[in-house]
Design a protein that fits this description.
Number of strands: 0
Largest sheet: none
Structural class: mainly alpha
Distance between the termini: 40 Å
Radius of gyration: 26 Å
Shape: elongated
Strand content: under 5%
CATH architecture of one domain: Alpha Horseshoe
CATH class of one domain: Mainly Alpha
CATH topology of one domain: Serine Threonine Protein Phosphatase 5, Tetratricopeptide repeat
Number of helices: 12
């Protein structure tokens, strides 16, 4: 759903560069373009890094996986796990990126590169967020993993970026609630609609959808025959968004259908 920004790739690449150690000369001649030839660990790792540097992320990921498979007890294997996750991310193979990063965390939970692994997992879910008309399971996973990055590593650059993305994810989830609420409202299911709009005003009140949600509450409460509740929603709308178009509409609606109450 989200295109990977050059800035985000740069941030990830800078972090990944810390995993790319320098080795001696890998020997003469180019290796064959296959991940399944047995090689010494430093040669295999450097060939994988070379593929990544040339933009061949899918090949790089397979080669980094081979480092771990062929040399599981080498220090290079730990580095290769994260480089594999990064390569899969660049290749937009997000499920495999998550798997590689999770494997790294299972084996090395206290490693200094753990924040990077958590961040890759969060980004991989974030990049899979679909539009609001589809199931939001991935969106919830993105929110949970981004929140985990902030909770575990609050003083890192990863946490700063995660906080920004949490706001975007919450706005997305609020949009889903609004989409369902509007559907219920169009179907005349006023109570079900009002519950969705209330969720937005209570759980996602800092998002861009709150003014409309309050207006929709005015509509549904009036339809339910409870103008006092409609007046409360309109009052909150007026107090917090006095110049918003949704308040102007709510004011007119209250004057038309509940002239005995005040919208502010």
């Amino acid at each position: 759903m989200h295109a990977i920004s050059p800035l985000r790739i740069a941030v990830l690449a800078i972090a990944a560069s810390g995993l790319a150690v320098t080795a001696g000369c890998a020997g003469g001649g180019k290796p064959k373009d296959t991940a399944y030839v047995a090689r010494d660990v430093d040669t295999l790792y450097l060939v994988a890094k070379e593929r990544l540097d040339r933009g061949r992320a899918k090949e790089a990921a397979a080669l980094f996986d081979e480092v771990e498979r062929q040399h599981p007890y080498s220090p290079w294997a730990r580095r290769a796990q994260l480089m594999s996750a990064f390569s899969y991310y660049i290749d937009r193979d997000y499920p495999k990126s998550v798997q590689s990063a999770q494997r790294f965390l299972q084996i090395h939970p206290g490693n200094k590169d753990a924040p990077y692994a958590y961040y890759l997992i969060a980004l991989s879910y974030y990049e899979q967020i679909s539009d609001v008309t589809r199931d939001q399971k991935i969106t919830q996973q993105a929110l949970e993993t981004l929140t985990e990055v902030v909770r575990r590593y609050p003083n890192t650059t990863y946490a700063g970026d995660a906080k920004l993305k949490i706001d975007l994810v919450n706005d997305h989830l609020a949009g889903k609630e609004m989409e369902i609420g509007r559907f219920y409202e169009r179907s005349g299911k006023w109570l079900a609609a009002s519950l969705r709009f209330r969720t937005v005003t209570e759980k996602y009140q800092q998002t861009s959808h709150t003014p409309e949600a309050l207006y929709r509450l005015v509509e549904t409460y009036l339809a339910l025959g409870i103008p006092e509740e409609a007046q409360k929603a309109a009052a909150v709308l007026g107090a917090n968004y006095p110049g918003d178009e949704w308040y102007q509409k709510a004011f007119k609606l209250m004057n038309k259908h509940a002239p005995g109450t005040q919208a502010v």
